[in-house]
Amino acid sequence: MKRIFIIMASFILILFSGCGEDSSGDAIFLNSKKESHEGSSDERCLEKYDVEGDVWSISPSEDSYIKTQICDYAVAFFGIYDVEMTCTSVRYDSGLDHFVVTLKEDDHEWDFGIEISECNFKLTTDGVYSSVIAGMGYWTMDRCLCKEEDGDVYYRVGKSDAESSSSSKKSDDKKNSSSSGKKQSSSSKQVVVASIEDYEFVEINSQYWMKRDLDVFVEGSRCYNDDPANCEKYGRLYTWAQAMGINEKYNSEELGEISLPYQGICPEGTHLPSYGEWEDLFDFVNDHSEYKSYFMNQMGGAYDYQGYYRSLEEESLFWSSTEYTNSGNDNEFAWLWYFHADKVVGADNGHKITGAYVRCIKNDAP
C-alpha cells in the first residue's frame, strides 16, 4: 500500500517540478533556486554549515562540503511522501565522477547517485524508487558550498583536500618532466610509488609475476567496501585509467597506441601486463594448474561499472594495459582477466570504470 502511494505521489511531483511554482511549500523545496541568491557571508556559512574561510576547488571531491546539503535534502525529499529515511553516508566516487548517498528505510539501505550540473544536483536511481524521483527537478546548492564566478564553477572543500590537490599537481609536474618517450598522458591523480623491493615475485613460464596484488595509493582508488583493512588483505581496487597512471578522461576516451612494456602505476623495473602477456600466462596455467594459486590467494572481488562491490572471496579481477577496440564501443572498455573460485579463468572486455586489481611483471628476468 505504501509503494502504491509513492507511485501516485510521483505523478504529483512531476507536475510540481515541471511548473516551477513557488507558491507551494513542496514546489519551493523541489525547485530551490532561492538558495542561490542568498548571501554567502562567513557568519551565515559558519552558522548554517559550520564552514568558514575561502577554500575552493574547480571540481567536487570527497571533501566537498556539498555532502551535507545532499544528505539533508534527500531525507527531506522522501519526507514529503511520508517515507522516513535516514542518511547513513555520502561518498564521492571518483571513478564515476559523482556522489553516492546511502539512505536507510527501516532495515533496508538504498544507494542513490547524485547528478551534479554546475551548482545544481538531483537524485538518480534505477532501483525501487526510480518512479518517485523520475520527475524531480534540480536542487540548487547553497552559495556557501558552490559558487559561479566569471563563467567558472567552484566547490567549497576542506583545507586538507585543497592541499592534497596542490601537492598532487607538483608531483605530476615532476613526473611529466622526467618521463621517457612512452605515451603516458599526464594525470591529475596523486600516486604513491611502490618499490619493487616491497613485493615478492614468482617465475611462471619465464615471466616474473607479483605474488600479491598491488597496494599503492592513487587518488580515487578504493579498498573493497571502503574498508582500509581490505587493502591490506586484498590489495587496492583501481579503474583502468588509475592503473595506467593517466587522466581519468581516458576511462571514456581512447588512449590509443602505447609503447610496451607500459609501466602504469607499477614499481620501477616492472610493468602492467598487456593482453598478450595475460594470454600467455593463461595458456600456461591452464596446463599447469598449480600456478593458479598465486592468483587466487586474495580473491578480493571487484566493484562494477555502477560502483557496487561484488564477488568478495569468489573472484580475482585484474587489469591489462590493453584497450578493447571495436567500432561503436565509445572507447569505454579495456581487457580484464579473471580467476574464479571454481578455478575458471578467462578474459572480458570490461568497462574502464570497473574497480579491479593490478599484478605487475618484471621487465627483465633476474
Describe it for me?
It is a single chain. This protein is α+β, with helices and mostly antiparallel strands and 366 residues long. The protein folds into two domains: 2-161, no CATH class; 184-362, no CATH class. The protein is 26% helix and 23% strand. It has a five-stranded antiparallel β-sheet with strand order 2-3-4-5-6, covered by helices on one side. A three-stranded antiparallel β-sheet has the order 1-8-7, with no helix packed on it. Strands 14-15-16 form a three-stranded antiparallel β-sheet. Strand 9 and strand 10 form a beta hairpin. The longest helix is centred in the middle third of the chain and has 19 residues, at 159-177. The chain is elongated and about 65 Å long.
Structural class of the secondary elements? alpha+beta
Secondary structure tally, helices: 9
Walk across the major sheet and give the strand order.
2-3-4-5-6
Low-confidence region ranges? 1-38, 160-189
Name some characteristics of this structure.
elongated, alpha+beta, single chain, 5-stranded antiparallel sheet, 3-stranded antiparallel sheet, 366 residues, 2 domains, disordered N terminus
